[in-house]
Design brief:
The chain has 335 residues and is of the alpha+beta class. The chain is built from eleven helices and eight strands. The protein has an eight-stranded antiparallel barrel. Helix 1 runs antiparallel to helix 7 and helix 2 runs antiparallel to helix 4. The longest helix is centred in the first third of the chain and has 28 residues.
């Protein structure tokens, strides 16, 4: 996958590391509140570890925000990064990230002056700030560009599992007199995980999420001269190893149909499928990268889409689907 600049890689990496530190901080907070302490380990070490992990999360979150502002791809400004839901780029999901970051900043700041503000106020703020973690995980899936990558799921899933297990442990080991409250908390956790899982599977992991999430149309279709693909595609031909999610609109063209796809994985690619007829089993596929034509191939019906060859490279429009509104989705796969 390409990025508009190295800053895009930095902001994505810093976001992932922030989530890991935030998860550790969240879990340590739950364990400490629940009275858990490893044998032969002084209590103050638990508190110091919790504080240092929280500061680590704040440090990487700062890197994440600063590099996102400096990177030219999404064109984010200081206002977008500080005022929730004000951005033109995926406003809802980016806004949730802004709220999460500001809640966590308040959490860390009040923890550093805990003795001055008093335990009661600190505890009230601390509970409210715990919303930072679920907002962060939703922000990651909603705004991120790597949610389908195996390595991203290897980070996301253990983070979610760790928090769910920690909360379940806390609910099961609470005061017997608060059984009713803990029961409500347990059911809320159960249904919350179900709703979150359903949203992830039917939303961010589906083709076309970039458009559905609120990415501006000009950004989806822009041709970035600075972009470079991980598959080292060149203007002389189509490289192997591509696996890009596509979303397009079917439009009647003479006696056939044209589908102009927007590449959700790498906006620097443009893909046009021209079918010879409404129910045609053949057509022509043109693939361009950064404005240069790199493939012009005849394609035929395959097992689950259209298949062809471009200069010896197999080209497959897999999982080709069209809904009632004429929206077409597919995966561009080369091998």
């Amino acid at each position: 996958m390409s990025a508009a600049s190295p800053l895009w890689y930095i902001t994505r990496g810093a976001g992932m590391v922030t989530l890991i530190f935030l998860t550790l901080s969240f879990v340590l907070g739950i364990l400490t509140t629940g009275g858990y302490r490893p044998p032969r380990l002084p209590r103050f070490i638990n508190s110091e570890l919790h504080r240092n992990v929280a500061l680590g999360a704040l440090l990487f979150a700062t890197v994440h925000v600063v590099t996102a502002i400096l990177d030219p791809f999404a064109k984010l400004g200081i206002l977008d990064a500080t005022v929730p839901f004000s951005s033109a780029y995926r406003p809802l999901w980016l806004g949730l990230g802004v709220v999460s970051g500001e809640l966590f900043l308040v959490l860390v700041a009040t923890s550093l002056v805990r003795e001055r503000i008093g335990h009661t106020l600190w505890r009230a703020i601390h509970w409210a700030a715990y919303a930072a973690w679920p907002l962060a995980i939703v922000h990651g899936f909603g705004t991120g560009s790597d949610e389908k990558a195996w390595w991203a799921l290897v980070i996301y899933l253990p983070c979610v599992a760790a928090v769910v297990i920690a909360i379940a442990w806390r609910l099961l080991g609470g005061d017997p007199e608060s059984r009713g409250v803990r029961s409500v908390g347990g059911w809320s956790l159960f249904f919350g995980v179900l709703i979150f899982g359903f949203w992830v599977v039917t939303g961010p992991l589906q083709p076309g999420w970039a458009q559905a999430a609120g990415t501006p149309a000009p950004l989806l279709n822009q041709i970035s001269a600075k972009s470079a693909t991980a598959t080292t595609a060149t203007t002389s031909g189509l490289s192997t190893g591509l696996d890009h999610a596509l979303v397009g609109q079917a439009v009647a063209s003479g006696s056939g149909i044209d589908v102009d796809f927007a590449d959700q994985t790498d906006p620097s690619y443009q893909i046009v499928l021209s079918l010879n007829g409404v129910d045609s089993s053949s057509g022509r596929l043109k693939v361009s990268n950064a404005g240069s034509l790199i493939c012009d191939a005849v394609v035929q019906n395959g097992a689950d889409g259209m298949v062809g060859s471009c200069a010896g490279t197999r080209v497959d429009l897999a999982n080709l689907r069209q809904n009632r509104r004429g929206v077409v989705t597919a995966d561009l796969v080369t091998g």
